[in-house]
Amino acid sequence: MVELSKTVSLTYQNEDRKLFDDLVRKHHKQAYNVAYRMTGNNADAEDLVQDTFVKAYRFFGNYRRDMPFENWLYRIMSNMFVDWLRRRPKAQIRSLDEPVRQEEGETTLELPDKAEGPEALLLSHELDTEMQNALATLPKDFRIAVVLSDLEGLSYEEISDVMGTSIGTVRSRLHRGRNLLRQRLKPYLE
Amino acid sequence: MNCHRIQNMISVYIDGELRGVEMLSVRQHMSDCAECKKEYESILLVKRSIGGLAPKTPPSDLADRILERLPSTSPERGILTSLRMYFMGTSHPLKLAGVGAMFILAALIFVHNNKPQQSMIADRPASPAIVNNDFTTVSPLFATPRKLRPDYFTFTPGNSFAGNWVPIPPPNPYPWLTGSSK
After folding, report:
1. What is the pTM of this model?
2. Which of A54-63, A94-103, B152-161, B172-181 has the highest mean pLDDT?
3. Which of A20, A30, A149 to probe by mutation at the B interface, max B CB count within 10 Å?
4. How many CB pairs under 8 A join A and B?
5. Rounded to an integer, what distance in angstroms lies between the CA atom of residue B1 and that of residue B29?
6. Rounded distance, CA A16 to CA B46, Å?
7. Nearest beta carbon to residue B62 from set A28, A147, A171
8. Contact at 8 Å (CB) between A24 and B67?
9. Residues 84-143 of chain A whose Cβ lies under 8 A from any Cβ of chain B
10. Could you give the CA distance from residue A154 to residue A51 in angstroms, rounded to a whole number?
11. Where are the domains of chain B?
12. What is the sign, positive or negative, of the torsion defined by CA atoms of B55, B56, B57, B62?
C-alpha cells in the first residue's frame, strides 16, 4: 500500500513538472512583456520573470486550477516586483520633476518636443521609450494596475484579485495612474 | 451629475466597467459637455497608447534558462490541491474505489451519530407528560384533544345588566416548570 501511494504521488509530481514546463514555454513571453513594462529594462525584466517562475514552481501546489495561470503568475510577479523595488530603493524610478545631477550642476529631465501628430506617434519607437519613461515615474501600484489593465486587458475584478485589493481601489489606481501618464506625456499626446 | 464626478468615472467608463444608470449618465453628459468629451478622448488616447505598445520580445533562450533554474525536486502539493486534482482528473479504478470508501465511511459516521444513546435518555429529567423513556407514550392529560372553540370568557354575576365577562387564563402548558399543576 505504501509502495502504491508512493507511485501514485510520484506520477502526480511528474505530471505537475511536465505541466509546469509547458506553462513556462507558453507564458514566458507574455510574462516578460509585463515584467519589462514594470521594471523598464531588459536585465531586470529577465530577473523578475525568472524569479517569478521559480517561485510559482515552488508554490505550484497551491495554484487553484480554476484561476487563469497568467493571472496567478501576475499575482506572484507583482508581489515580487514590490519586494524588488523595496530592496532597491534607488532603482530606475525617476520623476520628471526631480533634479538630475550632472557635472555642470543640476538640471531636470526634459521631454523633447515632437511636432508629429499623435496617430503617427502611436506606433513610433519614440513613444515607446517615452511611455516607458512615463510608466517608470508612476507609483508602483498605479503602474501595476495600468499595465494589467491596458497592456494585458484584465478586468477590474481580475486586477483586484491579482493585487489583493478592492475593485474601488483598482478604479482609483487606474484613474489616477492614467491621469499622471497623460500629464507626463502631454507634449506627445496633444 | 457635475463635471467633476463624470471625470472621475471616465476611466471606468472607458474600461466598460460602468453599468446601467451610471454608464448612461456619463454617456449622456459627454454628448452635451465639450470639456468632459475632451477629457474622455485624452484618457482614451493614453489607454490606447499603452495598448498599442509593441510587445517586448525576450531573449530566445529565456524559457530554457527558466527551466534550468527550476529545482529538480517536484513541487509539493497542498492537501486541498491534491484533493481537488484527485477529483478533477480522469476517472480511474483507484479513484472510484477511493470515492466508494469515502461514501461508506460517511454513511457509517452518519448512522453512528444518529443512533439514540441510552445514557443520554436516562440522564434527562423526565417531564410528567412523558410516561416512558422512549418519548412515545404521553400521559392522558396531554393526550386530550383540544376543543375546536375554546371558552375564552366566563360569566360571573355582577352589577351590570349584562353581567361581568371575565377572561379565563389560558391553561399552563408547562405546569411542571412552574410547579403549578393547573
Report:
1. 0.62
2. A54-63
3. A149
4. 138
5. 8
6. 41
7. A28
8. yes
9. 118, 122-123, 127-128, 131, 135
10. 22
11. 3-51
12. negative
A40 vs A33, A56, A60, B118, CA distance in Å? 10, 22, 27, 74
B156/B158 Cα distance (integer angstroms): 6
Per-residue pLDDT tens for A146-185? 999 999 999 999 999 999 999 999 999 999 999 999 999 8
The topology under which CATH files domain A111-190 is Arc Repressor Mutant, subunit A (1.10.10)
Contact predicate A143/A135, CB 8 Å: yes
Residues in chain A with CB shorter than 8 Å from the CB of B94 are 8
As a residue count, chain A comes to 190
As its CATH architecture, domain A1-92 has: Orthogonal Bundle (1.10)
Domain coordinates in residue numbering, chain A: 1-92, 111-190
CA atoms of A139 and A177, how far apart (whole Å): 8
Q: How much is the pLDDT for B164?
A: 63
CB A85 within 8 A of CB A93: yes
According to the model, what pLDDT value does residue A45 have?
A: 94
Which residue carries 499595465 as its cell?
Answer: A147
